[in-house]
Amino acid sequence: MSTTIVMPQMGYDMREGTVVKWYKNEGEQVNRGEVIADIQTDKATVEFEAYTAGILGKIYANEGVPVAVGEIIAIITEPGEEIPTDLEPNNEQIKEVPAASDPAESLKQPSPVISEIEPTTENGTQFVDGVRASPLARRLAKESSIDIRMITGTGPLGRIVEKDVLEYKISGTPNQNIDSNIKSFDGSGESRIEELSPMRQAIGRVTVASKTTAPHFYVSAEIDMSKAVAFRQEVNNSVTDGNRVSINDLIIKASSVALKEFPKFNSFFNNNTLEFHSNMNIGIAIALTGGLMVPGINNCENKTLLEIAKSSTDLIARANENKLTSVEMNETTFSISNLGMFDVDSFSAIIFPPHAAVLAVGTVKDQPVVRDGEITVSKIMKATVSVDHRVADGAEAAEFLILIKNILEQPLSLVI
Amino acid sequence: MTEMTYREAICLGLTEALDEDPRVYLMGEDIGPYGGAFAVTQGFWEKYGSRRIKDSPLSESAFVGAGIGSAMAGLRPIVEIMTINFSLLAIDQIVNHAAKVRYMSGNQFSVPMIVRTVTGAGASVAATHSQSFEGWYASVPGLHVVVPSTPEDALGLFRTCREMADPVMFVEHILLYGYKGEVSDSIKIPLGKADIKKEGKDVTIISYSKMVHNALEAAGKLAEEGIDVEVIDLRTLRPLDVETIVNSVKKTHRAIVVEETTKFGGFAGEVVSIVQQEAFDYLDSPVYRVAGEDVPIPYSMPLEKLAIPDTDRVVAAVKNIFKKSV
Amino acid sequence: MAGKTNTQNSKPKSKKMTSSKPDSLNEEQLLEFYGQMVLIREFEKESERQYTRGNVKGFLHVYSGEEAIAVGAINNLKKEDYVVTHYRDHGQALVKGIDPKQAMAELFGKSTGCSKGKGGSMHLIDAEKGFMGGYAIVGGHLPIAVGFALANQYKDENRVTLCFMGDGALNEGEFHECMNLSKIWNLPIIFLCENNLYGMGAPAKDHLATPDKIYKMSEAYDIPGFRVDGNNVVEVYDLMKGLTEKVRNGEGPQFVEAQTYRIQGHSIADPAKYRPDEEVEYWKKKDPIIALKSLLIDKYNVPNDTIEQIHVSAEQEIIDAADFAEQSPFPEDKELFSDVYGV
Fold first, then answer.
1. CATH number of the domain at B195-325, please?
2. Do C118 and B68 touch (CB under 8 A)?
C-alpha cells in the first residue's frame, strides 16, 4: 500500500512550505526515520524524516515551489507497486490568507470610555413604528389592538411607557376627561361633523379588529331565573355588611363554574394555537358616559359569590370615578355584558379581545311558560353567547351555555 | 437565632470547619499569632496550632499554589489572601491552575479549596488597596464566586462552600465586618440562589455585597415618594441565579444593577445583558447601572466618596426612571 | 563574557562512565534503564513525525537528549511518590509509568488520552501512577509541587515530591518563593533543574545572575544544592538515591542542577539557530543513550543483539501506540462541557 506524503505542519501557524532539496530520487529506497528532504518554513529550514519505509515512488513538489500545508508532495510505494494516477496536487494559487492584523494598530485609538449615553430626543422613522416606546408598552398595545402611534408618551425622552398605554385604554389620552360630546338634535336643518372622543375611537378600533378577525357565531338560550331571583333575595336578606348580590353577580359566578368545565372559553386564539389563561378574570361591561369599559374581577375561580359581589360593586364605583387599575383593565379572560337594566330582551355582543367568547344577557321578565303540560309564569332571561369559531364549535358553545343555564336554574349549586 | 457580626459569623464557619474536618487547615498572611488582618482568626493559632494555622510568608503565588497542590492531594485548605488587590499576585495560580486542573487532567484532579479574600473601598486606603475584582473571577469557568452581604448569608454560604469540590472565591467586604445581624442556628444556603431582601412592585434593584445595604437604604427613601422597590441580593456571582432576577423584572418591568467596582466592563454589564435578553418584552425602561466611577480610587475622603456609589446615587438613578418628560 | 562559547561554560564536572567505584546498579538494572531511555527517544521521534503529519498540534517540546535525567531520577521513586514537571514532560511521564498508548492518544487529542484529550502534550497527567502533571506556565507548577509536599507532611505520609523545572523557571518569582516557603516549613520535596543551557531562544547565561553556579542558588535559602552531569544516568541515579533518602528522613528540601542539552530545538517549530553548530555537535557526541550503550558493551559485554532487540521492541511499542492513537476517536462534542466542575 502506498503512503502519501503531504507538506508537513511544522509550527502551529505554518501555512505553506517549500522543498529546498530532495535527498532522494524517484525510485530510491527510503527507510523509516531517514531524512529525505529539507523543507523551508517562514522561520527556518528544517529536516524532514520519512515515517514509512518503501520506495520514493513519485515526487510532486518540485524544489523551490511553495506548497500549502497538507498538500501532497510525494508518495512512497511498496516495491513493484503502481503509482496511483489520481493524486495530482491541487495546483491552484496558494490562497492569500489575510495576515493577522497588527495588534499595535488597533491599540492606537483608545476606545472612548462610555459614560451613560443619553440618546437624543429626536422622534422619527428610525424608531420602531416611528415612535419611541418601551418593549412592554409595545406589547400591551399590540395585545389590546391599539395603534401605538396614537398614544402620547410621558416617559423619559417622551417615551411611551406602560402607564400611557393603560391610560389610553381607559380614556383615550392622559389627562383628558371622558368626553360627553352629545348634542341633541336641534332641528335647525344643518348637518354637522363631530369628532369622536379618543375613547370612542379606541372602542371603534378594538371592535373592528375583533369583528373582522374573529369569526363570530351566536348561541342563544332562555334561562328560567325564578329560583335564582328567590335565591338572591334570601342571600341579601341574610347579609349583614351591606354587601348585596346582584343578578349579574349570580351570572358571573355561574359563568366561572361553567368555564372550569369548558376551559376553552377561557382561552384565546393566537396564531394557530390556543393560549389557555391560568386564571379566570371575568370582565363586566360597564357603560359610562362617552363609552364602555370592561374591567375584570380577578380570580373568579377562587371567589365565593359574596366575594364576587363585593368586587363588582367596587369595580362599578371606581369605574365611574376613573380609578381602575391596569391589572383590572388588562387581564380579563372572559366577559359578560348585561343590558337588562335597559329592558332589552336579548342582544349579541362583540368579543372583547383577547377572549374567546362573550356572554350577553337581557332583562329578567315574567313570561308565560309551559311546565308539565300546564301554563305558568316564570321569570325568563335571554342569554346569547358570542363565540370565536376558531376556538370552538356550535356544539361546544351550546354545552357551555346550557351549563350556565342549568346552574342558574338550580342556584343552590352556586354555593355547594 | 443568634445575633452576631459578619466577622463572628465567618469566624464561626471557620471554627466549624476546623473542628469537623481534619483535612481542613488555614493558610495566609498574619493569620497566626497576629490573629488576622481583619481579626477573623483571633485565637485560632493558640487553639489549633501551627500545623493547622499556617502563617505564611508574603508569597501569594507560592502559598495559594501550595493550597491548590494540597487540595489536589486530598486536603481541604482554606487560604486567605489579605485583600483582593493582592490576589493579582496569585492570579496565575487561581485562574490558570485552580480553575483548570480538573478540566486539563480529564477529571483526575479536583481542587476543593476555599480562597477567602476581602474586597471594597471606603476606608481611605487609596488606589491599590481599594479595588473590587470579584467580577473578574466570576468570568472564569471552573471557579465559584460568593459575595455575602449579611452575617447569616456569610455563615450559610460558607457552610455550603465547605462541600464544594471546586475552588471557591469567598469574597468578604472590608466595611461589613462589624455589621450585626440575626443568624439562624443551622442556616445553610446553596450557591446560585439569590435572596429577595425586600419585595416590591415598581422597580427591581439587583445588587451584591455591601451595595445591598445601600440599595435597601435607597428603597426606604423611595418608599416615602411612593416608589415600591424590590431589592435582590445576588449572594453568589458564579453560579448566578438568573431565574430570580428575570422573574423579578418581569414583575416590576424596571431594573437597576448596583455594584461597587468600576462601571466599564464590570459584572453589572453581565446582569444587564441577561435581563434585556430574557425579559425584553417586559421592560418599560432601559436597564441602568450604578457603579464606581472609571478612576483609580483616590485617597482624599471627599474624592473617595465621589468615586464609589452611595445611597443617594441609587435613589437618583431610580427616580430617573420614573421621571416624566411632559 | 562576550565571545566565549557556551561549550566552555557547559562542561560538567563529570566522571567517565567507566569509573571503578563500586556499582550502585547491576547489569540488569542498567539494561532496564537503557530500555526506558530508548523508549523515550522513540516516543519523541514518533511524536515529531506525527506533528508534521498534522496529528499532533499546537506545541510539542521533546525530551530528546535529556533522557538520563528522568530515568536516573525517577527510578529512585516509589509509585506513591509524586512527580510534577514542566511542559517538556513526555520523558518523565513515561518513566513514572504512563502507558505510551494513552500518552500518544493524548497528544493526538483523542478521547482515549490520559487526560481525555483535553490537556495535550503539555498536560500529560496520570494521577494514579503519581505523575501529577506537566504544566504549561513556566514556574507555575512549583507552588503546586510545594502543595503536594505540604499535604504529605500534614498527613504524615512518607512520600517524596520530585519537582522538575527548566533553567527558565529560575527567573520566575515562584522559584524563589517556593525555595523560601519549602525551607521554612521543612517540606519533603526535591527541586530538580534541568539546565539545558537555553531558555526558549536565549542562553540561560543571559538571564541568570549566576549561570555557572545554578546549583548554588539554593544556598541563599539554606537548601543544599548539588550539580550532576545530566547525561550520565548512573551519576544521576546515584545522586538522587541519596537525596530521596534524605528527604524521607525529614531533612527537608533539596536542590539539584542537572546539566544537559536538548538535541532538538525548543519545540517542533524551532530550528535553534541561536546555538552554535560546534556546541550542538559536542553535545550530540555526549548523547546519554550512546554513553550508556558504550558502558553496557564495554563493561558488561552485552551482546549487540540484545541492544538491537531493545531498540526493535521500543520501536514496535511506539508504532503500536501511534496506531492506537490514530484509531481512537476524538472526544464527543458534549465533552466540551464536562469536567469544568465536579458533579
1. 3.40.50.920
2. no
Burial class (CB in 10 A: 0-12, 13-18, 19+), C316: exposed
Edge-to-edge strand list for the sheet holding B53-55 = B53-55, B24-28, B76-81, B114-119, B168-173, B144-146, B236-238
Does C116 contact chain B (CB < 8 Å)?
yes
Reduced 3-state DSSP string for C232-255: CHHHHHHHHHHHHHHHHCCCCCEE
Assess whether B173 carries a catalytic annotation: no
Indicate the SS3 state at residue A36.
strand
- The answer to whether the CB of C252 falls within 8 A of the CB of C187 is yes
d(CA A100, CA B198): 52
Q: The domain B2-183: what is its CATH number?
A: 3.40.50.970
Buried b (16+ CB within 10 A) or exposed e, C326-336: eebeebeeeee
Nearest to A10 among C45, C58, C268 (CB): C268
Q: What is the pLDDT of residues C108-132, one digit of tens each?
A: 999 999 999 999 999 999 999 999 9
CA A195 vs CA A179, A183, A202, A387, B296: distances in Å: 11, 12, 13, 32, 62
Q: Could you identify the residue written with the cell 437565632?
A: B1
- Rounded Cα–Cα distance for residues A17 and A45 (Å): 9
CATH 2.30.40.10 fits C25-324, yes or no: no
Helix (H, G, I), strand (E, B) or coil at C54: coil
Q: Report the complex ipTM.
A: 0.90
Domain with CATH 3.40.50.920 in chain B: 195-325
The whole-angstrom separation of Cα B27 and Cα B18 is 12
CATH 3.40.50.970 domain residues, chain B:
2-183
Structure confidence by residue, pLDDT tens digits, C279-305: 888 888 899 999 999 999 999 999 999
A321 pLDDT band, cuts 50/70/90, is confident
Neighbors of chain C with 3 or more C-beta pairs under 8 Å: A, B
The answer to whether residues A386 and A357 touch, using CB atoms and an 8 Å cutoff, is yes
Q: How far is CA B290 from CA A115, A322, A339, B216, C93, in A?
A: 11, 37, 55, 14, 52
Look at C52 and A45 and tell me if their CB atoms are within 8 Å: no
Q: Which of B253, B321, B323 sits opposite A136 (nearest CB)?
A: B253
CB contact under 8 A, B105 and C115: yes
Residue A93 has pLDDT above 70, yes or no: no
Question: What whole-number distance in Å separates Cα of residue C214 and Cα of residue A4?
Answer: 48
Residue in A20, B181, B79 with CA at minimum distance from that of residue C147: B79
Specify the higher pLDDT residue, A93 or B34.
B34
Q: What is the mean pLDDT of residues A386-401?
A: 94
Write down the catalytic residue from B97, B129, B144, B173: B129
Q: Give CA–CA dist A316/A322, Å, rounded.
A: 10
Residue C97 pLDDT grade (very low, low, confident, very high; cuts 50, 70, 90): very high
Distances from the Cα of B15 to the Cα of B11, B20, B150, C92, angstroms: 6, 8, 18, 41
Question: How many other CB atoms are found less than 10 A from the CB of residue A44?
Answer: 15
Show Cβ contacts of residue A144 under 8 Å, excluding neighbours closer than 6 positions.
A165, A169, A206, A330, A353
* CB atoms C147 and B57 under 8 Å: no
DSSP string, A309-321: HHHHHHHHHHHHT
Cell of A160: 411611551
